[in-house]
Design brief:
mainly alpha; two-stranded parallel ribbon; elongated
């Protein structure tokens, strides 16, 4: 009599291939509203730099990347409320 641990395991069945999920788009009216809101209020950024001169350099580089991506600097003054 063979020991149960020495019996060969059954071969696993292959998994079915996943089916692609069709993209779901927003209705045209909703998309239009979303884009008009985004155009009306551009994205802004504020960078607060603490520490050494290298931190200031990194902040300048980050500001450049954000502006290249379409953001603009916030008009907020240090410690003040946003405009």
């Amino acid at each position: 009599m063979a020991h149960p641990f020495h019996e060969p395991l059954p071969r696993p069945q292959p998994l079915p291939r996943p089916q692609p999920i069709p993209p779901q788009s927003a209705p045209a009216s909703r998309a239009r509203t979303l884009f008009s809101v985004m155009d009306a209020s551009p994205r802004t950024y504020e960078i607060r730099t603490y520490g050494c001169q290298m931190n200031a350099h990194d902040s300048e580089r980050l500001a450049g990347l954000l502006e290249d991506a379409g953001y603009r600097a916030s008009r907020r003054r240090s410690g003040g409320a946003p405009e």
